[in-house]
Amino acid sequence: MDLQTIEEIPARMIEVGPLDHITPGQGRCVIAGDRQIAVFRLRDGRMFALDNLCPHRAGPLSEGIVGLDHASQLEAVICPFHSYKFALRDGRGLDTELHVRTYPVELRDGRIFVDVA
Ligand code: FES
Could you tell me the distance, in angstroms and rounded to a whole number, from the CA of residue 75 to the centre of ligand 1? Predict the structure, then answer.
């Protein structure tokens, strides 16, 4: 008989879905209670999660372009509304004083989880 390890998922973690739910190089918006969270999967496998609504005028960051910001050498998302850039790692604005909240992301058994605590 095979024994299967059942990993306990803390209540603060929300499941986004399987890894292939997000195309490499793109983002996806997930709803967690009254929050919208943008989850990004980079082409190199790294994952990041930020509030989906841009702090400027609520542009959907999950629909923004992700890539390396050459000036800061940080991976960033460009808001689709007015092109402000935010670092994926810590949510800081790269060309604005505005800031986006970030969330830890984990991959467990091929499934994506975001810590919304
Ligand atoms: S709404 Fe995002 S830059 Fe304006």
Answer: 18
